[in-house]
Amino acid sequence: MATEILQLIINGIMAGTILAVPAIGLTAIFAVLRFANFALASHATIGAFAGLVANVNFGLPVVPSLAFAFLAAGLVGLATDEFVLKPFRAAGFITTAIGSIALTIALENVVRFIFGNELRGYDLPIRRDWRFEGIRIGPQQVENLAIAVAVMAAVFLFLMLTRTGKAMRAVADNPMLANIKGINAEMVARIVSFVGMGLAGLGGMLIGLDTTIDPLTGFRAILSIFAAAVVGGLGSIPGAVVGALTVGIGEELSLLFLSPNYRSAVGFFTILLVLIFRPRGILGQRAF
Amino acid sequence: MSDNTISRRHALQGVAALAAGSIAAPAIVRAQAGALQLGVLTPLTGAGGFDGPRMLKAMQAVAAEVNAAGGLLGRQIALIVEDDQTNPEAAVRAARKLIDVSKVPVIMGTWASAVTSAVAPVCWESKTFLTTVSGADSITLLPHQGYLIRTQPNNHLQAAKHAEFMASIGAKRVFCLSIQAPFSVPTQKRLAEVLPQGGSELVGALIYEKDKTTYRSEIDQALRTKPDFLYLNGYAPDVTVLLRDLYRAGFDGGRMTQSYALTSKVLESLPPEVTEGAYTTQPSADVESPAFARAAKRLGIDDQDSYETQATDWISLVCLTIAKAKEASGTALRENVRKISQGSGMKVYTAVDGLKALAEGKEINYEGASGPCDFTDIGDIIDCKFRYQRVAAAKFKFLKIA
């Protein structure tokens, strides 16, 4: 039983860590622009496909392909925010969020138009899991975990140490005060759109590395990503990490007493529970 | 003379009024008056996105052949196509559009059982005929009042055949992993009933959620029962993940799944070692029937699968029934489909041949490319063959049709 619980916790950490990367993107965009950008789903898909092109067509290894995924999704995110979602913002946050759903469906179909519906896989060797005392861990998962942790560390260092990162935090915490201090909110919005959607793209590829991808890759993950961000505290970047791990581990541990077909329900019960007792999420809504 | 002048003037006025009326009428009204519209609702995207477009092509090929031979009830056929997205909500919206806007008498093509379960009530409530490939037993048990037929063997029959096959190749301890779908529990129950008849047993079963990026924990749960064979009862996106996770977990036993979950495209997307030795099965087209040969020629492909042949049969059955009933309505289809699909009439193998025979006043029995196309009272087919394949070096190796 102890081995089983430990295995489930490890599986949950692995799943949660990968979920955390796009969840950071979602929450960072919310922190600065104050709307839930559901277009994150299609940007995760775009990143996964951009990474596929880099890896399969250009023959690049995983890490440069991930950089390509980040860049492609980030640039598309920047362009779509500038030309599509920015005009929506004047009509209010709900309109913008709904507009982002329309945007994500449109982009998903652009991907479908270009790449078709088929499942596609990265050009990676598949390896058997390592086994230690009855616990099994996948080498690819460990690599994904390391990449996700490194990306998260880079995001935190960016926010803590760079002038742009501090400007983002300032706008997220108090846009009016940031404006008085001379921070260009428009520029910060562009940067957060680029970085947020870049992280979504990177997360999309990380999901794909472990499985296969198709135009619905991002859409399939968006509810769990959203759950992670809300549980942690929508707008809180460390909260996204805590939320992703909570959802990941919670869903896995539920298998001890529930049938696997109720796994997602656990994530959403967790949202309800957390929001009943902590309406602003586990870590609140302070960006950092 | 004056009479002639007046009548010509009146005639000209009449023509002008007709022309003005037809220009003023909405496009959809003009289209209805022209072509006979038949609804198609296949999955062009989503998990069924591999099969749906091919099914559509098969129907378009038959429609083109019927149109070239003079059409149906003196009108050309027009297929009004919607994408069900392999998604029940999207499918219901699309079905409503086909029924309420295009006023089609029939909807052909739903693929996933969950989609068909959602669309069927919309159809029978509006007296629209529905043809489907969905296999869940529950579908023909719905109170559809006869407004539904399926050319796919029901789940009860499929699960029994699959269990017999697994036992025949030496599987002793079978575990079933099913996606959450209407067919999951009935399949698991049927496997448990039939496997012991071949000296095998179902050591466990679980139902997993779709759209997960990993099924490691589900695999762990299955492997704890020490199975030597796994029956993967899902769709391509999740079966792909299961196969990968099984390889990683070091499982070297047998695996079997439906052909729609392990397609040639899926084989290309996975490393060869992940799929090596996996068995696939599907209801088979009747490859020796004349209808199959004619459909192959029409489509220009030799190896059409069961779904393509079933789509060929739907539109053929629909055309022949409309011709038999001399009326294009859902109720006419319901009342007359069995009059041309079974019985002692002259055997016909294509829609065009059948239309010709009906025009000559003959009784017909359509024998399809997918099988005999004889239906029970609740809309299930009575008989069907199955095709078995095994993966070797990332290619399908044909085993048998039985």
Describe the structure.
The complex is a heterodimer of chains A (288) and B (402). Chain A has 288 residues and is mainly alpha-helical. Chain A has a domain at 21-215. Helices cover 75% and strands 2% of the residues of chain A. A two-stranded antiparallel ribbon of chain A has the order 1-2. The mean pLDDT of chain A is 89. Chain B has 402 residues and is of the alpha/beta class. In chain B, strands 7-6-8-9-10-13-14 form a 7-stranded mixed beta sheet, sandwiched between helices. A 5-stranded parallel beta sheet of chain B has the order 2-1-3-4-5, with helices on both faces. Chain B has a two-stranded parallel ribbon with strand order 11-12. The longest helix of chain B is centred in the N-terminal third of the chain and has 23 residues, at 2-24. Residues 1-8 and 11-32 of chain B have low confidence and may be disordered. Chain A binds chain B through residues 4, 7-8, 11, 14-15, 18, 112, 117-121, 124-129, 131, 136, 138, 140, 207, 210-212, 214-216, 220-221, 252, 255, 259-264, and chain B through 44-46, 49-50, 180, 206-209, 211-218, 220-221, 236-237, 240-241, 244, 247-250, 265-266, 268-271, 273-274.
